[in-house]
Design brief:
By secondary structure, this protein is α/β, with parallel strands linked by helices. Helix content is 32%, strand content 33%. Helix 1 packs across helix 4.
Amino acid sequence: MTFRIAVCDDEQIICTTLYNKLKKISEIKLVKFEIDCFNSGEELCCEMKSTNYDLLFLDIELPEMNGVAVGKYIRESLNNELIQIAYISSKQEYAMKLFEMRPINFLVKPLSDDKIAKIIDKFLLLNRVDTELFEFKSGHSFYKVPFADILYFGSNGRKIKIVTQSTEYEFYDSLDTIYKEIKNKKFLFVHKSFIVNFRYITKYQYEQIIMSNNKIIPISQSRRKAIRSIFLKTKEAELL
């Protein structure tokens, strides 16, 4: 399988360094990477109208259209939730301000070989998970939906609704049973009526969360402390 990677940084030396490091990693891991380099956010955004990338290394401090604006364009204008974004900066304090763009990680210059390798390891792991399917029966038909496409599960009595990026399904089951199957796949049981996919949370608040489709989902009072703890540990782990 071939993965397409984009590197966007106004410093050509960073682009060249990342390109060479990624090529070396691809040889070690026997994974094929096609790598394109860009020196401006505008150039990258123009290319992304016709090219799909799997992973993006994106500098925050780009001139004119900076990395935050590029991230918003990707998530909101292109409605692309699948590309993984690894931000690059010379300033550590940006890290937690980028949650809305749901980055895979955050690199601080000068670039560390170990940190780049960890991002690639995580990217490859996520892509293996993305091939896993949630299977269920609705009526007389059987369905298989990629876990990576599911935003959340909602329940109304015994009826379960699956909301994905493109459609919705309904079937009969219980959220307790479903959670036993998916709890190790970055889903959070935030309310007795909702299980959400962590990767599609765009905003977290103590009493509620907002999903990438703008759905507001409450967090049960009894689960708020536990969810906050899980949330903070997960974000900290992603940024290590």
